[in-house]
């Protein structure tokens, strides 16, 4: 077998090393729990630096650094909005990359299951509903759908017909809910607890409630209808 040239140039080991180091730039950028969390957050819609910092419980300075690393790898892009800088995912492919990375970790890394259980708690009392079944129920008028994410995320895009009912406002939303129809709550994805808390609160109030098995990004990525501003 012919050996690759150790000198620079076409087909050389030096050039191949440089290529794969360049490809690994994306992996290096995501190699931080906070940056992974930022990508997860931005799948819900664009945010200012301050809004991202508040959501991930970090200082604005630390958050800005993380965003700059992600931007340097081409994963996010920014736009100035008055005095603020707003960030969004660079493309739908970035959302796909994050979802694939998350799913592989869940399937291949044993520790992730324990960590997820520690964060999410026991979901044995929560009945999930699939995306196809939810769309069928929306079309037939068999369910009321609640988007329990923060209102900013709802306004960035939501499932058609869904009502905005952030957890902090859920008690007020109950008064307008009919009791003779199923209620389905959804939030950010499989590792979001908003819908879990909403379903438990709805059931305690006497509603027949369940949660979407994952969340809005998965619904959108599957090509199902979305309402945007």
TrEMBL record:
Q: Which SMART domains match?
A: HTH_ARSR, RHOD
InterPro entries per record:
ArsR-like_HTH, GlpE_sulfurtransferase, HTH_ArsR_DNA-bd_dom, Rhodanese-like_dom, Rhodanese-like_dom_sf, WH-like_DNA-bd_sf, WH_DNA-bd_sf
Show where the HTH arsR-type domain sits.
Answer: 15-109
Residue ranges of every copy of the Rhodanese domain listed in the record: 139-228
What is an example of a GO molecular function annotated in this UniProt entry? Answer: DNA-binding transcription factor activity
The source's domain of life comes to Bacteria
Xref: PANTHER family: FAD-DEPENDENT OXIDOREDUCTASE, PYRIDINE NUCLEOTIDE-DISULPHIDE OXIDOREDUCTASE
What is the protein name stated in its UniProt record?
Answer: Transcriptional regulator, ArsR family
Its source organism is Haloechinothrix alba
Organismal lineage? Bacteria, Bacillati, Actinomycetota, Actinomycetes, Pseudonocardiales
